[in-house]
Specification:
2 domains, Immunoglobulin-like, 2 helices, 11-stranded mixed beta sheet, alpha+beta
């Protein structure tokens, strides 16, 4: 029976404002980016919060989405609450959201509707819900306080490319070559000295070895001479 009342009231909410005794209170406001550039897309959430004395919570809402359409345009819009079905009259930007089960009424802060806007011209505008209607589970109209979102759209500044001057390092090739040459000469001299030293050492060792071998031969010869002499 209650579902039938809400479905029947849907046509009325879409076309003409409704009037009933305001028993409870709630707040409807918009949250999102407040400073954008032309051609930027941004999301705005319609939020219901501060719900008081609403039997079963808020199960229905309606109103006109208002903004300056010369500054902003709607790219996309959808329900932000899975329990609410959304009905729209795009020609007048009126929306109606209803929880057909009547079992998931809003009692605390809840995002109910998500809108994607695009900035189309530089300027300032306020997004708000005009003629907001909120209903509780018993079809009582809830008194709604509405807060808008003030959005500033900035012109896009042209990008100025910075021209960088390449500074080439200055150096004298001759000096570098001279230094390298000196280093090479020193290294070559050191290498030569090492080679000369090594050659001298090798000759000295060879001479010493030859002398030792000669002495050894003398000793062996002398030793054999003694043996043979003793034998003789």
């Amino acid at each position: 029976m209650k579902k039938g009342i809400f479905v029947g009231a849907l046509v009325t909410l879409l076309c003409v404002p409704s009037y009933a005794y305001a028993k409870g209170t709630a707040n409807v406001r918009f949250e999102g980016n407040t400073n954008i550039n032309v051609n930027d897309e941004f999301k705005v959430n319609m939020v219901i919060d501060n719900v008081n004395e609403a039997e079963g919570g808020i199960v229905g809402y309606a109103g006109y989405i208002k903004y300056d359409n010369s500054i902003l345009e709607i790219v996309d819009a959808k329900s932000a609450n899975n329990y609410f079905d959304i009905y729209k009259n795009d020609s007048i930007n009126k929306i109606v959201g209803i929880d057909m089960t009547l079992n998931h009424g809003i009692t605390s802060k809840t995002n109910v509707y998500e809108i994607t806007f695009r900035g189309i011209k530089e300027g300032n505008t306020t997004i708000y819900l005009k003629d907001a209607d909120l209903s509780d589970r018993d079809a009582n109209i809830i008194d709604a306080t509405v807060e808008g979102l003030n959005v500033n759209v900035n012109a896009v500044k042209p990008i100025v490319e910075e021209v960088k001057t390449e500074v080439k390092p200055s150096y004298t090739v001759n000096k570098v070559e001279k230094v390298e040459t000196q280093e090479s000469v020193i290294e070559e001299t050191i290498e030569n000295k090492e080679e000369i030293k090594e050659v001298k050492t090798t000759k000295k060792v060879a001479k010493k070895t030859k002398k030792q071998e000669k002495n050894l031969l003398k000793l062996v010869s002398k030793f054999f001479k003694k043996i043979f002499k003793k034998v003789a």
